[in-house]
Write a structure and sequence with these properties.
With about 260 residues, this protein is an alpha+beta fold. The chain has 5 helices and 13 strands. It has 2 domains: about 140 residues, Immunoglobulin-like, CATH 2.60.40; about 110 residues, no CATH class.
Length: about 260
Amino acid sequence: MSFFKKAMASMGMGSAKVDAVLDSERVQAGASVTGKVVIRGGKVEQKVDEIYMDIRTEYKEIEYRDGKKKVYTNTATIQNIVLPFEKVILPKDEYEVPFKFQLSPNTPVSTENNEIWIDTSLDIKKAIDPTDLDYIKVSAHPYIQPILDGFIDLGFTDSGIQNEKNTYVKDVDFIQAFNIIPTKAFNGEIDELKVAFFIKDRKIRVFMEIDKRSGLFRELINADKTRTWLELTEEELIEGTDYIQEKIYNAIKNCIIK
């Protein structure tokens, strides 16, 4: 009987259970996430070596093959957290492991089409690792909102947000792109602007893909798109919207007149 139970536990049946209990499902990118991981023993004793908490989301990847457009949905791991926990879990045992970690500043914003979740799992040798999934609602890092306000003050309006394959920075699978369109400044010069952010060392880099208004031929060969970027420090962000707005305006203007 004991052998049968162990065999079943190795396949995930009757194994220990794990449940991540978050203090709040709402968190800002770059802020602390707190809570506890609850582990409940299964039908047999099992040795747990570590607890893993992986922050994940999905992004779209577009490929063109044989003249056809194909869209793939990929899962990306934003961040890996390892909680030290080396114990033999007996049947009916229950443990609570508190946790606190800082969410990556580059965690994307949660939207209806861009969900973010935490995969919590136990590392149990020779067994299917027990897992738990919890969705979180992530708001933008505080560096991002002043820049979005700068675009709004220039007359740009939101036309959607999506996670897509990264072609901007190294060592990142995907970026979150903010699509905005001009209504005042650059109206008639730009069809659309795609904006992405990357935060590191108290600086934020703003990547812009500019879809310039042009003729049909240039659109067909993708010659109407160009890229630029600007970098702002934490001190510059404190300067206010007018300062940020001027930085954005000059970066776009210098790009479209080339």
